[in-house]
Automatic annotation (TrEMBL):
Chain residue ranges for the region called Disordered: 42-63
Organism: Halanaeroarchaeum sulfurireducens
Lineage: Archaea, Methanobacteriati, Methanobacteriota, Stenosarchaea group, Halobacteria
Stretches with biased composition (Acidic residues): 53-63
Protein's UniProt name: DUF1918 domain-containing protein
Length: 63
């Protein structure tokens, strides 16, 4: 599943301080291999270069 800017997502990355948190896709960058990397903004910061495999759509009722 690909994401677009302003989509709400949950980050799944045990090495990130934002693991398990809901954020908003701020930027989508295509790599030279045709994959997408995302910049996700959270309440307390942002995570850059997030691969699609580390994101899932946030539940609709998640604030």
């Amino acid at each position: 599943m690909s994401f677009e800017e302003d989509d709400r997502v949950v980050l799944s990355d045990k090495h990130s301080e934002f693991d398990g948190e809901v954020g908003t896709v701020a930027q989508v960058v295509e790599t030279m291999f045709g994959d997408a990397n995302y910049t996700v903004e959270f309440e307390d910061g942002q995570e850059q270069g997030v691969p699609e495999d580390n994101l899932e759509a946030a539940p609709e009722d998640e604030e």
